[in-house]
Each structure stands twice: as C-alpha cells, then as structure tokens.
C-alpha cells in the first residue's frame, strides 16, 4: 500500500472541534453583549437563558477556591487537549465513534479554556429547572464535552461486545 492509499488519520475530524469551538464562542459573545450578568430570559417553562460566570469546574466545583483554580483547570484543559490531539492522530479517520468523541471533547475543552484564559471564568447561560430544582447553568462547550464522553462510554461497551463475539 502506498502513502497515497493510507487511511487518513483522525486529525481530519478537527473540523468538528473547530466548528464546536466557533459555535461556543459565538453563543458566549452574543450572551455577553446582549445580557447583563445574572439576567435571565425565560424561553420555556423549564428553560431560561441565564448569564452566569463560573470560576470553577463542572457544577461550580472549586469556584470559591481563591483564584488558583483558574490556572489549575487551564493546565488540565491544555493537557487533555494535547492528549486528545495525539490520540486523534493515531486513530484512523474511519474510526468515527472515537474520532467524533475526541473531537467533541477537544472542541469543548478548548472553548472553556479560552474563557478561563481571556476572562478568568467560564461563561454559562443554558439553565434548566423545574419548580424549585435548578440544574447548574452550562454552555455549548459543556454539551460537547458531555456528548463526547457519552460516545466514549458507548464505544467502550460496544467495542468490548465485538471483541467478545470474535473470541467465542
């Protein structure tokens, strides 16, 4: 097989990371420029756009840590992004579930990383609730990370089933 016939690496999936990053940054820009911090716009009886700053990680973990968490969480995001890019390079582009998962997590990680580096916090605005119960606000980058993680779990279960089937 010649080099021109090789299957391309998973790096071709970086287009998805860039698309998710662009959508994330665009939505955050619109929120920042059209809403006041803390402002909430009712969209549905269980969903609002609520402009918030998150100084911590998921569910505001470490948000009251005094500032060091910005650098710690940024370092983790950079390390994960480098690792995911390395893994994408080693994958064949036709391994679409893993490539899709890595590209989604990478796009989300970079989106939140840019927020931390530029602002010192992550901009959140998607807010679901029911009566007195409120799910913590999140953003497009968070959705990409969770979706990618879900695909990784899916792949872990389905690829182990395939391996067991071959051994039987």
Report on this model:
- This protein has 168 residues and is α+β, with helices and mostly antiparallel strands.
- It is built from four helices and four strands.
- It has helices at 14-34, 68-90, 96-119, 140-167, and strands at 40-44, 47-54, 122-130, 133-134.
- The chain has a four-stranded antiparallel beta sheet with strand order 1-2-3-4.
- A hairpin with a 2-residue loop joins strand 1 and strand 2.
- The longest helix has 28 residues, at 140-167.
- It is globular and about 55 Å long.
- The chain starts with 13 loop residues before the first helix and ends with a helix.
Q: Would you summarize the structure shown here?
A:
By secondary structure, this protein is α+β, with helices and mostly antiparallel strands.
The main sheet comes to: 4 strands, antiparallel
Number of domains: 1
Provide the spatial order of strands within the biggest beta sheet: 1-2-3-4
Number of helices: 4
Q: What is the gyration radius calculated from CA atoms?
A: 19 Å
Average pLDDT for all residues:
87
Helix content: 55-70%
Parts with pLDDT < 50 across at least 5 consecutive residues: 164-168
Overall strand count: 4
Element pattern in H and E? HEEHHEEH
Give the CA-based shape: globular
* Strand percentage: 5-15%
What class would the helix/strand composition place it in?
alpha+beta
Our measurement of the CA-to-CA distance between the termini, rounded to an integer number of angstroms, reads: 32 Å
